Each structure stands twice: as C-alpha cells, then as structure tokens.
Amino acid sequence: MAKAKKATKKAAPKKAAPKKAAPAKKATAKKAAPKKAAGKRKPNAAFMKALTPSATLAAVIGATPIPRTEVVKKLWAYIKKFNLQDSKNRRNINADDKLKPIFGKNQVSMFEMTKLVSKHLK
Q1: Sign of the CA dihedral with 50 first, then 55, 58, and 63 last
Q2: What's residue 44's pLDDT?
Q3: Short-list 114, 112, 61, 56, CA closest to 89
Q4: Would 95 disulfide with which of 5, 11, 77, 99, CB 3.0-4.6 Å?
C-alpha cells in the first residue's frame, strides 16, 4: 500500500516592484552652504539690555538695572526660596504679599508670569 501524499498549494512568490531609476544629476551641482563655526552662541541683544524694574518688582529682585534674563532667574530663585510653586500643578505659582501686586492675582502659570513681569520693566 502506498501512502497518499497530501496535495498542498504553495503560494506563488510575490514579485518585487521594479525599482525606479534615480534622476540623473546635472553637471552643475549646487555647492553646499558653508557651515558656521561650532562656537558659543551669541545672546540676543534685546535680552541682554539692562532694564530698570518698577518699585514693586524691585522689592523682590532689587532696584539695579539688569537684563530680562536675569530678572526671570531672580524671580525663580525667590519662588523656590519661599516654596511658592503649587504643590499639585508645579506650573502654577502662588503669589505671596510681594508678588501679588506684580501678578495682580493669587495664582499665575509660569508662562503668564513672564508676560506680567514685563509690564514692570522699563
């Protein structure tokens, strides 16, 4: 007795899609732009201009004219020193007696803070 072989269908092999030829490059290729030197970045002059804080802001950061970037650094130092970040949502800042006249309300977001502080700089 001969064993009967099961007839199994093999799937036809898929043909790969023909690859498209790359477009021929022109003889006059564009030159690459020269790369900038990888040195230190120069800060924007507008950020580095010394600004005088108002009397209410001076009570928090001092009365000497300083750049906007330093104003924000000093504000964050004050906020962290007195633990004024909201405990549940760390993006919010709770105003104390000195910050309330600057912000105009009890709580602001950290993004809104810079907008409100800019009104106190000349």
Answers
A1: positive
A2: 83
A3: 112
A4: 99
Q: The tokens of 64 are what? A: 């000497």
Query: pLDDT tens for residues 34-92?
Result: 666 667 888 788 888 999 999 999 999 999 999 999 999 999 999 999 999 999 999 99
Specify the amino acid at residue 59.
A
Of 29-38, 57-66, 113-122, where does mean pLDDT reach its minimum?
29-38
Instruction: Decide if 106 contacts 100 (C-beta within 8 A).
Output: yes
Domains of the chain plus CATH, in order, are 45-118 (1.10.245.10)
Measured distance CA(48)–CA(44) in Å, rounded = 7
Q: Is there a contact between 107 and 99 (Cβ–Cβ < 8 Å)? A: no
